[in-house]
Structures are given as structure tokens and as C-alpha cells.
Amino acid sequence: MLTAWGDESGSQPDRDPDTYLIAAALCDEDDVPEVRKTMESLRLTTEKKVHWHGSSSDRRHRRKCLEYLLPNLAEMPCSHITLESRSHLDASDVDILQKFRAQKVITSSLRVNHAVGMVEPALWVADIVCGAVVQSRVGNPTYLAKLSGAVDLRQI
Q1: Which of 29, 32, 86, 113 is the most buried (most CB within 10 A)?
Q2: Mean pLDDT of the chain, nearest integer
Q3: The organism sits in which domain of life (predicted)?
Q4: Residue 53 binned pLDDT confidence (cut-offs 50, 70, 90)
């Protein structure tokens, strides 16, 4: 069964206005320990986590992205997604999942969990994907090109 790790990011407002991204990094549940180990090895000793850059949260954008992402993950099939905790938005994420279950948009098998970014190395993968997409959108496709074949971009 697949598991997903998600993170979201705004783009560069001056160069790419009104753009908000969410990334889900998927892997087999059995591979999670190796992903964590690999990401931890990339963290510099001066960093709390591997992170593309600072970003701000926006409830409406995050919700819109999750409304698209959750049903797609459920179809893969993905058993759960762990999102980077944004303490004040966590309850809203679970609310979206519950509404989709009530509307029969997704089955009860998909679970949403939250983790603190600096504690969960697997979340760093999704953050890096968001950063690579932002860079590509503002004219620097180098990073996204290195991920080609592993990234499936969808615009909503």
C-alpha cells in the first residue's frame, strides 16, 4: 500500500502571483524508514530540517489543494497522507476528509495525519518538490528537470 507525505507552499508573489502549490511524495509503506534515513542524511547540522525556504500558510489555498489531492490519493490506492502540521489548520484538513467521506467521494480507508516538519524527514521530500516547481515557474527549470519522470504536475 502507498503512503503519502504532503507539504504546501506559496510561490514568489512578485514573479508568480496567486500561485499556491501542494505536493504529495508517495512511496510504499515498507520504504518509509529508508526515505527518512536518506532525508536525514541530507540535513545540514545547522538546520532543523531540509527545507526549500520559508513560506506562509493560507487556509483557503490549502483547502482547495486538499480538495483536489485527497480524492486522487484515495484512488491510487493510498492508505494515508501525513501533512506538515500548521496547528491552526490541522482541524480543517480533517474536516475536509470527513466531508468527503460523508459525500462518498472517498472511502473510509484514507487517513490524514499531521507531523511537525522538523521532526518528520519524509515531509521534506514534498517541500523540495514544491520548491523545484516554484523555481521552474519563475524561470529556473534546473531543479524540476532533475525530478522529471518522478513528478506529476496538475493544475487546478
Answers
A1: 86
A2: 85
A3: Bacteria
A4: low
